[in-house]
Amino acid sequence: MADKTAMGMLVDYDYCTGCHSCEVSCKERFDLEEDEWGIKLADNGPWRYSETDWEWNHVPIPAEHCDFCKDRIAAGKKALCEQHCQALVITVGPLDELAKKMTKKKMVLFNETNDEPRKKAVY
Amino acid sequence: MSNWKWQEGDYTVVRTCAWSPPGEHPVGWGLRLYYKDDVLHHVEGDPTNPITQGRVSIKFLELPAYNNSPERVIYPMKRDPKYRGDNSKWERISWDEAYDMIESETRRIQKEYGPESIMTFIGTGRDVWHTVPKITFSAFESPNFNYPHNGWSCYGPRSSICVYVLGAGYPELDYATEFPELRYDDPNYVLPKCALIIGKDPLVSNPDGLFGHALVDMMKRGTELIVVDPRATWLATRAKYFLQLRPGTDAALYLAMCHVIISEDLYDHEFCDNWVYGFKEFAERCAEYPPSLASSITGVPEQLIIDAARYWATEKPGSMTWGLAVDEKVNGIQTAHLVLLMCAITGNLDVPGGVLLGGSDREAPTSWWGWEELDDDIKAKRLGAAEYPCVSTACSTTQCDIAMDAIRTDKPYPIKMTFTMSSNPIACPSADPQMVDAAMHRPDFNVFADLTMTPSCASYGDLFLPVASTGEKDGLVATHYGALTLFVAACVKGNQVGECKSDDEIMLDLGWRLNPSKFPWKDLYEFLTWELNGYGIEGTWEELRDSELGFVTPPYEFEKYAYGLQTWNGEPGFGTQSGMVEAYCQRFADWGDDPMPYYEEPPYSPVSTPDLAEKYPFVLTTGARSWSYFHSEQRHIKRLRDLDPWPTVEMNPADLKRLGLVDGDWVYLENMFGKCRQKVRATPIIKEGTLMAKHGWWYPEKGPDDTGHGSYGVFDANINQLVPHGLYGKMGFGSPFKCMICSVTKAEGGPDFEEGWPAKAWDKTPAYLER
Hints:
The complex is a heterodimer of chains A (123) and B (771). Chain A is built from four helices and five strands, in the order βαββααβαβ. Chain A has 123 residues and is an alpha+beta fold. In chain A, a hairpin with a 2-residue loop joins strand 2 and strand 3. Chain A is globular and about 50 Å long.
């Protein structure tokens, strides 16, 4: 956490509806093949604890090649997955600031794994 | 550099609000379209759009693939009618030749048979709900504007009922559209405490102008949900109360909920005393449906019905949004009537944070542009209008089952020409699609205006007019087709693809040729300005496009009934016959039905047809939405197809086990009307004994010629083969698309196992797609 330049992705998965906008945005940006995903939804559920109590959560997981859209952020835009997320559950930004925003249940924080670019963005 | 067009590096960026194509309801997605070398390269959301705020659905993220698809037909073409079904016979022609053909056939048929022998066809959701009626009434001068979804089972019934019992335009959630700057944070906005979600999965479907994820915005701020659905949708799993009913039994549920609200004295006395006509009789009717009875009919636990009713009546304001599940049943009118009364008796109509209503001056649900100018003797020939005034009073259309009967029987007169704009009847809206396919070969001349070849056009089309997509045309988007105009925005053209023209341009071209006095606009922009002004917005279309947001919100007035804004004469009250909300609707009695809402079993169900149900033991519901597709569209867009590759039928795991099936098996769904093949998807979101089958499926990779299962294999997959033609409610509305019965048997495999599926057929390029 010492690295003040480290980027992160905060996901409020309580409200992720599974709309796929993050996945498809990233596929377009990197022109990915059918089985390649820059970010991908993992699902738990739907299944039931009781008649009325459901488990059904989607969590988007970034790939190792995710560059956190640093070029877009530098240009004053949002990361593409954050921009297009219909439920507004993704925030990309400085890791230390995002850690402070983890104040409610069902949130997850991803940090960078991308030491070197492994996929080239088309735009 | 302008508000709507600018340069970013190599890209020319055009700001637009999207309606369609591709099909989408008038959500008005705020988009930035990035063009490189005059080709649409990629799409980003427009963060300045007050509603969508930069968010984009995957349907519009794939707009470049859709617009630039090699499957697009981008030049007009014709086929000799004797070669219908042979898709090697299409010939490219000019627009002039295409219009010449339409003009000469129109004149011939008008002269030999009368203009009523020309019928237009429309589809759902597209931005042609003013365009097609205007073409019908003013260009062809025919009274027959047809939406080929049996019993008009989408939007029309709900909207019409609003007219008859409220005198109002379409009801909708209060999602802070009236405060475009600060939205939910505006100090004058009142957040609904409770939202009733009825037969609708708005996150996926974005219906009729509602941006579905606004509900998630509201849930984050504290709105609780009551969800009524046969499936545990994502919203249902997060609802305060989820009422998982047997498909088709809604009316019994709402009668019981109203009974709880009235008998426990939880209703709004002031509103009911002043503004509800027939309240006492309604209370008596509801008393016939105690929660115990409703529970046995619907399968919803009795206590849950009581708890949900109490919650709805006490957690105010409560808002509501309803889906086409309300319409797609024979008992649909009564269901819609009850939903509106549930909102009315709790005092939730047109209050801040309650149920928004369109004013009395709003057309609902279809445009009447050009109708008044028809001669009375022509008006009198509208098919099904005299038989079903409940349909023809509020809607400018035919009653579609009767319209189709005219095509197949020549009675009361023959239909010699059809003009189809944004509809694919044999793949999507029509019940008994094989009958429809055969019938549609009877007219002499069938014109289609579309973007790709479809099963319908491949089978019986004679002329193809290529239509411009989003980003290729200038136009307007208005929520709810103008019936509840929460905002109006400009759709803006960024490039020209082939020789495609927008639907509006085609309308004007046809009008100027066929009947110019009824098309007084000198160009498209004069027309768009006229349309914009009709929504109550001043200024020109160009001024709207050039404005800071390209988006405008008409002022919204709450409690219009209290201030004389919900009536035609300026008197307080509602624009109905009684001037009140009509629990007792005399018009329904005049039209041969019960003036008050009631419950009726679906025509085919384990209760109403127990003998048939032994053979067809599952309750079949259809039409669940996909993130990838708008109805029958987009099966040819690879990234969308990858996410949702096959038609699926959702089945409870216990049913699979009992039948010896496993997830992913191909099965035949079959009943006394027909069969189709879909792929089983095991899921606990549906109850044992109920199935949800996908609709609108065909296989672009199969190719346009019929090789055994209809054009593009449409009859392999089309679930509407299990739904009968000509079965609808007493007043002409509502066919049982959502509540049929069927059996399930394992198929030897699916279409993907057959030779040529799918890889080989993708490679075959019909000559008309050569660039």
